[in-house]
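Lab notebook page, bench 4
Experiment: in silico fold of construct C2
Operator: M.H.
Input chain length: 199 residues
Purpose: comparison with the prior construct
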Amino acid sequence: MRKTNTEIVPLIKAKALELLMKHNPDSIGMRDIARECNITAANIYHYYTDKNRLFQEISLDCLRQLNESIIKNTASAVNPRKKILCAIETYRSWCFENPRKALLVMQGIKSADDAPEETISEYYVCNRTGTALLEECIALGIAKSDNPLLDVDILITGLWGCIESVILKKCQSEYWDKGKDYTDRFISMWMKSIFVEEK
């Protein structure tokens, strides 16, 4: 990828995201994005080798923004356990408030499994934040885990599965409009499996 142009790259990403909000990734071509930007497809290829790389960069932007929200919202929590809950609630709220974007980031955009390891690790920025929060709780003796990174990964992927079921209406119909109630059940089970009972 060529050195980033501070004006054109944000424009390309913004216009591509607008298209992704309306169309499936497979139906969007570089020419479509270029047309929206009033540039040629060749201009985009100067910065991205193909549309998957562009979409993956958009996905990373979304995850970085989500992680920033998690860090900001957990900063005011009064204790480490509440920080974990605040992080979970921030993740859940973002997904329900941005269902199309969440579906794209979590499953619609092709995984960057052929990218360099350092790029792949960027996709797990929220997992690392969650792991640090859980490790703080373990150090205080209020939580238990032999593998905090794995337990946080299970939390995120499991919670996403519940959220996805609500968004796509694949859960019991009584919960189609009760996403918080539906996901509260999973969150409660995870918290009980990790945190030591308060006496």
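Observations: The CA atoms of residues 55 and 109 lie 7 Å apart. The mean pLDDT is 94.
Next step: discuss at group meeting.
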